[in-house]
Sequence to fold (484 residues):
Amino acid sequence: MENRYFETLKAKDASLPEQVAEQISQLIVERRLESGAKLPNEFELAAQLNVGRGTVREAVKLLVSRNVLVIRRGLGTYIASRPGQVDDPLGFAYYPDQLRLSMDLLEVRANLEPWVAGTAAQRATQENMDALREMCLLVERDILEGRDHLAHDVEFHVRIAQCTQNLVVPELIPIITYAVGLFGKLTGNSLRSETIIDHRAIADAICAHDPDRAEQAMRRHMELNRAELERVAREQRGEIGR
Amino acid sequence: MENRYFETLKAKDASLPEQVAEQISQLIVERRLESGAKLPNEFELAAQLNVGRGTVREAVKLLVSRNVLVIRRGLGTYIASRPGQVDDPLGFAYYPDQLRLSMDLLEVRANLEPWVAGTAAQRATQENMDALREMCLLVERDILEGRDHLAHDVEFHVRIAQCTQNLVVPELIPIITYAVGLFGKLTGNSLRSETIIDHRAIADAICAHDPDRAEQAMRRHMELNRAELERVAREQRGEIGR
Fold:
């Protein structure tokens, strides 16, 4: 199947470095250069794309700022580890109402993640299950030793997503769990023991290849998070004790 | 709820322009500068952030390349229309197997969009319904007049998502419909009349505030798309006529 994405970009009126950046992107895709592969040097690119080295340099800068390329000083220019992906790709940090954003994200998760858990139970390989169990333990250890468990918590959900063998789902999880980090401090310790119980139930059901049980366990976990977020929201609105 | 996103960014070791870019991002959020608002000029920013104007200029460039700011020549620097959002935020254009990507995206859509349609039917306002009907007509006109209807098709699904009143769902739709543009040319005209029928059924059910019917109609639409993509996949594998 032909990759038509960069063609549509060309249609917009773009500066010369922009156009060259798109030609380099096209070249990365055509030559199937993957993460960690080295980009041809400035001289080669300038000759091949028929532009000056200054333009190539500007184009490379643009692609670095978009996380497509990384420059290793003295070594050369390489394909980034997750080319084209950015932190916070939907610009959630710029939303004025972060509490509403959190509730809306949780609504999306509540509708997507039970399906993800069910599908994970159907398709998980032994390798997937080992990776999931490992992350389950890391989250538990963080909690029991009083550390911040949020990074491992997100990774636990990503590893469930990896069990589905679907390429897209593991990429969506970090986006829709964006809010976890935001309200983590507020909800504090209250959910820690429940998180351990929920996560174990989910991991057990997936490893038992039991889709219904995995879906149910995830649904309960999402419901717990939703209830806690609503409690925080009421508190913020000063409605506590009414 | 406090916005902690930019604080976590500061923790990473970043260049001075990077750090200033994050301070400017923080300022945009704190002052609730929204799309189209003007950024304070270089002098003010330099004085306020206690750095040189050259650094401010570098930081602004970084934020332009991330679609947070736009420079209007001779006028000043403004907040972009969807700050922080990029085209193709997950870097799908860099995936080597575009056919598998399309199938995996469609699996996600098949699990998310029926819920979106059902929720849309419950929450759509009159304004939402008018906007949805309008786009339904534009897609039909494209098809009947033999034009490419893909841009309007994606927008139709975005407008359904807007009916949910959830902030996140309309942002997810363009990401997960990325593949539509990719295999549109391949599936060609075959789905055109079915698209008209499906879209009308979905829009009618939403406007009748009938969640079950909206969900069913969307499920059928997704199934149609899946079947067509599988046909294309078989063709690509040379299995046609077996």
Remarks:
- The CA atoms of residues 97 and 103 of chain B lie 10 Å apart.
